[in-house]
Amino acid sequence: MRPTFALFLAILSVPAFAQTVPDSTKILKEVIIKGARKQTNISRLDSVRGTFIYSGKKNEVINLIDRDAAITEKYGRQIFAKVPGVFVYDMDGTGNQVNISTRGLDPHRGWEFNIRKDGIITNSDMYGYPASHYNIPLEAVERIELVRGTSSLQYGAQFGGMLNYGSKQPDSAKAFSFESINTAGSYGLLSTFNSISGTKGKFKYYVWFNNKTSDGYRTNSGSKYDAQNISLYYEFNPGLLIKAEWTRSNYTTSLAGPLTDAMFRADPRLATRSRNFYNPDINVPSITADWKAGKKTLLKLTTSAILGSRNSVLFDKPSTTQDIINPVTNQYANRQVDIDNYNSYTTELRLLHSYPLFKQTSNLVAGIQYMNNDLHRRQLGKGTTGSNYDLSLVTPGWGRDMHFRTGNIALFAENKWTLLPRLSVNTGLRVELGQTRMTGTINNYPDNAIPNNIRHRFPLFGVNTQYKLSGNINLYGGWSQAYRPVIFKDIIPGSLFELADKNLKDAEGYNLEAGFRGDWKFLNWDVSYFRLAYNNRIGTLAQRNSAGDEIIFKTNIGNSLTKGLEIFAQADILSGRKASITFFTATAFMNAVYKDAFLRSGNQNISIDGNKVESVPSWQSRNGLTLKFDKASISALHSYTAESFADAFNTVAASATGSTGVVPSYNLFDFNGSFNFSSRYQLRLNVNNAFNKQYFTKRPQFYPGPGIWPSDNRTYSVTVGFKL
């Protein structure tokens, strides 16, 4: 019997420690409480919540229930509008993928975050490919919790911190309830989300599905998305709750291909590809046990898996290479097929114990996390010459057929020492012990040069403090170490002329922050300074091998340092019983530069010391105004993002393919509104990018194709929701 399930059985055998409440029900008359309307769709986590300690750490909670935003389309600038410093890659207006980062990190599929759904990890493979390909529909989400990197010791070692999507909860008043949220919008957007939930005695459930289709803003950019979820809860006694869940997301999208600068200026809707497709299909099963082991002790045990695949079939060439029919063969060229299979398993046991110290209550969190992952990557398969989504190979075998297997144990502990009624200090430790083994075959590459073992041996330390000036106003600060393991793409050689360093080091560094936040009368604010050191960045250098041949050497190329200010302020200008007016600003300044770093350019190694880190705009500012009157709400949002560079050399002039050069600054305006006919019926209206700004946020140099990927112009959508 596996230890995880043995522990579950042990928990179930423990008798209830509280008396069963008699089953008596009284019907109470409706009570209406009237007061001033205060908009609270942004808040902070409690100092101690569940089996986590958040005291002294920068964090935000986004309430989506009352949010004026295009929920179905998942526009990141709207969803995270009140979180300063969130940078968004707007490359997918279908709402199938969220690409965000903070503090100068890489936004690609959020892979610098520890991403969770209701506390369950959804990163596909934390050590092989940490992107989160699972995508929950925001119609199913009640709140989003974002905790910055100084809290990472408790849940992982990621630089970005934790991003947790908190689902809606089962209806506790009825045995059966039904909710439907339906959206129609520009470019053929159609979405339907439907859920049922309820409570019967000790049993609760929440089940939903979502189907969504879109033709896409650009030609040849349509997508089809579906997702499902089954959550079952059973309360064995008032101190023991078991939850079993299965959730899945799957979508297939057509990739319209990259553009050159000239193409973008002529027509940003232009497509350079019509036969490229991308499809992640991810299942996340999990079991969770929450046990109140005593009046001051909580235990939480989770076991989960990421099972699925990430598939693509592409004509993978620069935008300057046309994908046309060969007049000799009367056929298109063969496409490239790539398939990742994820088998990632995580078990985590957490404990929170509260105890008296210095006549105050202090708290200890401790736990252990075990990961066992196998990423099977097959690439460079010779696909068909067809135009449909087809993963079949015309020639058996793969150019690369690799396994990336990781076993890792992490031990962690953090203690909140409440020294005075207003002063607390947290000290934390996380120890990572594991190893990753890469094996497999690469065509025309020596077998003995492929195996690579990477050991993960990291003691990570952190400290935080918080001082309460009053009940809702405090000063906070902290420092915490972090690391990012070497992942699959870092060490796979692309050709005979590439060699991966056998002594490649995991990236490591720290987060430092200090801030002042509070809620006083009509004002809510959080102002902070941060410093993020990211050492042992990975890149390529030009070298010669023992035979004197020039090679491309994948290794650690240097460090980077990001410093900045994050400013959030919200003022309730008017707060009455029926009407309210709120203004907010979420503004961030960042300076991200390379330190002691070199990078290959042709056959030379060029110093990039002092250069700006790519895809890090120095200024971002989102400012919004919301007017609420009775059952209606109208919001206006202005988003500004400064220019940034696409590469570490800080190339200004655009390359022929559009993959390097400056990413220009842009201003965007969104208008969102809602009307609640009653507690059961709601209407939402959205005008996104209202002034039709033509812009882009990224110039990829590699996947999904080197060049410009335009963002959506003006779009409209209407959402109708009802509950029964």
Sheet having the most strands: 22 strands, antiparallel, barrel
Number of strands: 38
- Distance from N terminus to C terminus (CA atoms, Å) equals 44 Å
Dominant shape: globular
Estimate the mean pLDDT confidence: 90
Strand content: over 45%
Secondary-structure class = mainly beta
Poorly predicted tracts of residues: 1-35
Q: Would you write up a description of this structure?
A:
With 724 residues, the protein is mostly beta strands. 3% of the residues lie in helices and 55% in strands. It has four helices and 38 strands. The protein has a 22-stranded antiparallel beta barrel. The protein has a six-stranded mixed β-sheet with strand order 1-4-9-10-7-8, with no helix packed on it. The radius of gyration is 26 Å and the shape is globular. The N terminus is likely disordered.
Annotate the secondary structure layout.
Layout: H1 3-12, E1 42-43, E2 48-49, E3 52-53, E4 59-63, H2 76-79, E5 87-88, E6 100-101, E7 113-117, E8 120-121, E9 141-147, E10 161-167, E11 177-185, E12 189-200, E13 203-214, E14 223-237, E15 240-254, H3 261-266, E16 277-294, E17 297-314, E18 336-357, E19 360-383, E20 393-395, E21 400-420, E22 423-442, E23 452-470, E24 473-484, H4 488-491, E25 498-500, E26 507-520, E27 523-544, E28 550-575, E29 579-595, E30 598-601, E31 604-607, E32 619-629, E33 632-641, E34 644-645, E35 662-663, E36 666-676, E37 681-688, E38 715-723
Parallel strand pairs: 7-10, 25-28
Antiparallel strand pairs: 1-4, 2-3, 4-9, 5-6, 7-8, 9-10, 11-12, 11-38, 12-13, 13-14, 14-15, 15-16, 16-17, 17-18, 18-19, 19-20, 19-21, 21-22, 22-23, 23-24, 24-26, 26-27, 27-28, 28-29, 29-32, 30-31, 32-33, 33-36, 34-35, 36-37, 37-38
